[in-house]
């Protein structure tokens, strides 16, 4: 909600964050482990490893998405064999020894190079100068890159400029993608919070880059509140109800006229510790955190997570979407013909703050979730 107050565009990757926390859980015990398992909705680390391994194995076959995870440990510590085994086999992570204590700049450069490669060069310098220092012991990092083209490309000749009204009411002139006609769309008129959802599909392609009807089904869902100030309530539902995004996915086509969505491109960096604590996950970030299964020679002062920093970037234009994410921690629908008469044409003009999600249907996996407050900015 802080991003809304600051009129900032926002994006974060739930899948990337969950994968990072699942990897962290492997190295924990006691109350810290129990709290992580509860937060991640898993019975034990065995079940968690199986779920993450299955997810990442699927991800490795999706040509639109790439994911990489790394563990960087100071040379004064030794990762436990059990932790390394689980990290490599289930979490597809690589483990590297670096010299945080004596050469923090070089260690920072190595972590940043790993993330830059994982995100195909879209995210550079995840760790800023001074982010790690002599007291840094372990860095868990992952990177994710998503790039896909629209199944039905927006015609650049239909792109028009218009007003987008920020939360403070100030209009800004921006280009709008336009594609009036049959679209998967739905209107929800709940008491106190009405909103519309527009669903834009990406091309389904196989590992060879060719169209494949059996390939994963990705799409972007755009949630437009009826009220110009309705975004906070919409986001609250998305955060507190885990299935909210997929539950609202339109299940049939209807005429949408006009249909306008602003082009947008931005990046966002934040430390997720405060947000996670507010959601009930605090044990890993306390001095009493139990990370004793991570290293075999635990330092006398112990280990705890001091930061969970995430950097994301997204770009939406006529061709498609590119989205990337990086983190460090010191059912495909079945559409059937409508049985009732088609509704009258829906108007969908995203000319005020809205929420969006990039999802994969078969696994009901939300890859990215964010909101647009001012598409004229390119942060």
TrEMBL record:
It comes from the Eukaryota. One of its GO terms (cellular component) is extracellular space. InterPro entries: Serpin_CS, Serpin_dom, Serpin_fam, Serpin_sf, Serpin_sf_1, Serpin_sf_2. Gene3D superfamilies: Alpha-1-antitrypsin, domain 1, Antithrombin, subunit I, domain 2. One of its GO terms (molecular function) is serine-type endopeptidase inhibitor activity. Residues 3-375 form the Serpin domain. It holds the Pfam family Serpin. PANTHER family: NON-INHIBITORY SERPIN-Z11-RELATED, SERINE PROTEASE INHIBITOR, SERPIN. Belongs to the serpin family. This is Serpin domain-containing protein. The lineage of its organism: Eukaryota, Viridiplantae, Streptophyta, Embryophyta, Tracheophyta.
């Amino acid at each position: 909600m802080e991003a809304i107050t600051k009129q900032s565009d926002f994006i974060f990757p739930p899948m990337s964050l969950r994968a990072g926390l699942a990897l962290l859980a492997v190295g924990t015990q006691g109350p810290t482990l129990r709290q992580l398992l509860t937060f991640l909705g898993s019975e034990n680390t065995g079940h968690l490893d199986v779920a993450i391994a299955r997810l990442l194995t699927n991800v490795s076959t999706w040509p639109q998405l790439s994911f990489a995870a790394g563990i960087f440990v100071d040379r004064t510590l030794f990762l436990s064999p059990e932790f390394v085994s689980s990290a490599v086999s289930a979490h597809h992570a690589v483990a590297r020894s670096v010299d945080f204590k004596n050469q923090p700049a070089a260690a920072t450069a190595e972590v940043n190079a790993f993330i830059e490669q994982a995100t195909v060069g879209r995210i550079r310098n995840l760790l800023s100068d001074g982010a790690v220092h002599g007291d840094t012991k372990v860095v868990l990092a992952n990177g994710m890159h998503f790039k896909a083209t629209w199944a039905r490309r927006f015609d650049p000749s239909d792109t028009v400029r218009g007003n987008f009204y920020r939360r403070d009411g100030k209009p800004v002139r921006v280009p709008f993608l336009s594609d009036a006609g049959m679209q998967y769309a739905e209107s929800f008129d709940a008491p106190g919070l009405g909103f519309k959802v527009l669903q834009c599909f990406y091309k389904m392609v196989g590992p060879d880059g060719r169209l494949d009807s059996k390939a994963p089904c990705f799409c972007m869902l755009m949630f437009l509140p009826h009220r110009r100030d309705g975004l906070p309530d919409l986001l609250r539902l998305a955060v507190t109800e885990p299935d909210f995004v997929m539950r609202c996915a339109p299940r049939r086509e209807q005429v949408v006229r006009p249909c306008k969505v602003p082009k947008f491109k931005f990046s966002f960096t934040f430390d997720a510790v405060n947000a996670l604590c507010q959601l009930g996950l605090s044990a890993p970030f306390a001095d009493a955190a139990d990370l004793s299964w991570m290293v075999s020679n635990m330092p006398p002062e112990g280990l705890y997570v001091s930061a969970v920093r995430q950097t994301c970037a997204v770009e939406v234009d006529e061709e498609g979407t590119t989205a990337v994410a990086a983190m460090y921690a010191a059912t495909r629908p079945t559409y059937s013909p409508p049985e009732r008469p088609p509704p009258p044409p829906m108007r969908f003009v995203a000319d005020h703050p809205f929420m969006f999600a990039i999802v994969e249907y078969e696994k009901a996996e939300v890859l990215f979730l964010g909101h647009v407050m001012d598409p004229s900015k390119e942060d």
